[in-house]
């Protein structure tokens, strides 16, 4: 087996020289990334292999996670040349675990998108079919892991941005509980929704990486001081007596039949392994997307106010002359620096928060959010986990949805309510469509019950071979 | 339901410059999105408390003690235009 195809746990178990893995990954990038375009830039190679549980393991990070003195741009023109003066907490934790920071990956600008087409640097392509999108917004991280360009990767998930690309690219993507992983140094999109999480080749690597990045951080007052268990202990092939909930609202019109069949088969496999099954209802599901697009864009419009050309990143050349005033500089910089979707979301959020509309839009959305959260609270009284498709279809064609923002937003229909409710979710490969494109199975659990996700995901993965399939590039 | 004038006003609030054709396009797109979001009006939320945050965390306090902060020289490295240890901007008032 080629070194670039190894998982982190294989590298550790077989004591493979991580420097040779890194070399193999660099060669792989040189040979396939002109087709995939997942990698924005390589991190400088360190002289020594770090010590720790992830000693020397090369890790790709999404371009919205700050690495000290290393270009970090959110794939946006407005952060041209920005080199953060500090490490994000997850980066410090990776360094402490001995991991090797390997490359920054492409994304939708500021994580605004579901296809990685909204990048200032151009789209990433799905390794399974390069005419299709890898999903988004962590499409670069998902595609890099899938294409063998990184051993494991970090992404961020605000409305499905880890799970949906994991589904489209045939890898494992985990969104932890809100507050499980520090957001310090993650350039904010929707502060009440964002979480950093792993994109990996299998479930075991996901647990290994979550072990390293999880935990309370005084620098993020929304991180929670809940004990971090050893997640690898949950990698057991046993779901006997576990109660699975199947929400009827997720198996609706518009869901691809092949996707539905694959998920049904996955549920059958878990039933055969001893799990109990129950139909449940999440009655406010159809309101999740409109709620999300008010809450997320409102938070984004506020968070993105800081990109104004004053301190760092781009300052529009048109406004660099001493004669123009500060306000002109703001307008010119933000016009030149933000892409179309970023502008669209800032505008929508600004509108929803503006005087006269705040109650009709923002406040109403926050109230519906309560109803969506209550649906899950109620469901988890009688089940241990919930199983759904990750996305209603397989990967769509590049360009197919760029002219229709609403249809793009709807591709996140099954992942969005998770973020609104703050619960954890994982997407794992569960089959292929006729087009030979991966299908993802989504498992959701109660807050801080990532152990349940790993147990169910691992049991399923042990009974299948989907995660071992590799795209031909 | 959203007019060209609304879009121009919001663009001003958001401090983003737009061309004429962009204003037109955004008026159409935002109208379509807001129409879809109008779906939220189907629900009676008069007795529902808002959730701005999912965690049962209220204010988070810390002791008011001095901590090491980033060195000024490190921070100034990110400046687009600087003058000694200050970020320089175009003039604010006439």
Quick overview:
Chain A is 34% helix and 13% strand. Chain A has 14 helices and eleven strands.
Question: Biggest chain pair contact, residues each?
Answer: A-B, 71 and 51 residues
Low-confidence stretches of chain A: none
As a percent range, the share of strand residues of chain A is: 5-15%
- Summed up, the helix count of chain B is 3
Quick check: average pLDDT of chain A? 96
**Which structural class matches the secondary elements of chain A?**
alpha/beta
Q: What name goes with the CATH superfamily of chain A? A: Amidase signature (AS) domain
Uncertain ranges of chain B = none
* Spatial separation of the terminal alpha carbons of chain A: 16 Å
CATH superfamily of the domain at 1-42 in chain B: Glu-tRNAGln amidotransferase C subunit, N-terminal domain
- Strand arrangement within the widest β-sheet of chain B reads 1-2
Q: How large, in whole angstroms, is the Cα Rg of chain B?
A: 23 Å
Structure description:
The complex is a heterodimer of chains A (473) and B (94). Chain A is of the alpha/beta class and 473 residues long. Chain A has one domain: Amidase signature (AS) domain (Amidase signature (AS) enzymes), CATH 3.90.1300.10. Chain A is 34% helix and 13% strand. Chain A contains 14 helices and 11 strands. Chain A has helices at 8-13, 18-36, 89-96, 139-146, 163-169, 203-213, 257-272, 288-303, 326-337, 340-353, 359-379, 405-409, 416-421, 450-462; strands spanning 39-42, 58-62, 100-105, 152-157, 172-175, 195-200, 243-247, 276-280, 385-389, 425-432, 438-445. An 11-stranded mixed sheet of chain A has the order 1-3-2-4-6-5-10-11-9-7-8. The longest helix of chain A is centred in the C-terminal third of the chain and has 21 residues, at 359-379. The mean pLDDT of chain A is 96. By secondary structure, chain B is mainly alpha-helical. Chain B has a domain at 1-42: Glu-tRNAGln amidotransferase C subunit, N-terminal domain (Histone, subunit A). Chain B is built from 3 helices and 2 strands, in the order αααββ. Chain B has helices spanning 4-14, 20-37, 72-76, and strands spanning 82-83, 86-87. Chain B has a two-stranded antiparallel ribbon. In chain B, helix 1 packs across helix 2. Chain B is flat. The model of chain B has no long low-confidence stretch (mean pLDDT 92). Chains A and B meet through helix 8, helix 9, helix 10 and helix 11 of A and helix 1 and helix 2 of B.
């Amino acid at each position: 087996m080629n070194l670039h195809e190894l998982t982190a746990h294989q590298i550790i178990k077989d004591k493979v020289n991580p420097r040779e893995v890194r070399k193999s990954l660099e060669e792989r990038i040189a040979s396939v990334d002109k087709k995939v375009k997942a990698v924005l830039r390589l991190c400088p190679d360190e002289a020594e292999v770090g010590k720790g549980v992830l000693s020397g393991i090369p890790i790709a990070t999404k371009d919205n996670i700050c690495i000290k003195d290393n270009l970090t741009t959110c794939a946006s023109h407005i952060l041209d040349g920005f080199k953060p003066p500090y490490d994000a907490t997850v980066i410090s934790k990776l360094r402490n675990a001995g991991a090797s920071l390997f490359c920054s990956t492409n994304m939708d600008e500021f994580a605004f998108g579901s296809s990685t087409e909204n990048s200032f640097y151009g789209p990433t392509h799905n390794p399974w079919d390069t005419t299709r999108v890898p999903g988004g917004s962590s499409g670069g991280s998902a595609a890099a892991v899938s294409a063998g360009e990184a051993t494991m990767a970090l992404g961020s998930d605000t409305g499905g941005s880890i799970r949906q690309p994991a589904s489209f690219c045939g890898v494992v993507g985990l969104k932890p509980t809100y507050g499980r992983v520090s957001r310090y140094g993650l350039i904010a999109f929707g502060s009440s929704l964002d979480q950093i999480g792993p994109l990996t080749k299998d479930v075991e690597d996901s647990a290994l990486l979550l072990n390293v990045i999880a935990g309370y951080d005084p620098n993020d007052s929304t991180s929670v001081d809940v004990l971090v268990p050893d997640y690898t202990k949950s990698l057991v092939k046993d779901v006997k007596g576990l109660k699975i909930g199947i929400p009827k609202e997720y198996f609706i019109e518009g869901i691809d039949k092949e996707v539905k069949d694959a998920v049904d088969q996955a549920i059958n496999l878990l039933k055969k392994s001893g799990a109990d099954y129950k139909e449940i209802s999440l009655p406010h599901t159809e309101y999740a997307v409109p709620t999300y697009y008010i809450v997320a864009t409102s938070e984004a419009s506020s968070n993105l106010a800081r990109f104004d050309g004053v301190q760092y990143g781009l300052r529009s050349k048109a406004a660099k002359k001493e004669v123009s005033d500060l306000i002109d500089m703001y307008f010119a910089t933000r016009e030149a620096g933000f892409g179309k979707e970023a502008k669209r979301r800032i505008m929508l959020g600004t509108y929803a928060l503006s005087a006269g509309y705040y109650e009709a839009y923002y406040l109403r959305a926050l109230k519906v959010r309560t109803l969506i959260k209550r649906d899950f609270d109620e469901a988890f009284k009688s089940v241990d986990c919930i199983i759904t498709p990750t996305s209603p279809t397989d990967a769509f064609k590049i360009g197919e949805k760029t002219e229709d923002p609403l249809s793009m937003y709807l591709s996140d229909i099954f992942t969005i309510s998770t973020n609104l409710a703050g619960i954890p979710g994982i997407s794992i490969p569960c089959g292929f469509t006729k087009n030979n494109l991966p299908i993802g199975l989504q498992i959701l659990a109660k807050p801080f019950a990532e152990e349940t996700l790993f147990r169910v995901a691992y049991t399923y993965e042990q009974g299948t071979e989907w995660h071992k399939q590799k795209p031909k590039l | 339901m959203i007019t060209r004038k609304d879009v121009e006003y919001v663009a001003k609030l958001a401090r983003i410059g737009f061309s004429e054709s962009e204003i037109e396009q955004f008026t159409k797109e935002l109208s379509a999105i807001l129409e879809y979001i109008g779906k939220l009006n189907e629900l009676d939320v008069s007795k529902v408390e808002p959730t701005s945050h999912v965690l049962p965390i209220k204010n988070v306090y810390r002791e008011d003690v001095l901590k090491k902060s980033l060195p000024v020289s490190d921070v100034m490295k990110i400046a687009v235009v600087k003058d000694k240890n200050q970020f320089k901007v175009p003039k604010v008032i006439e």
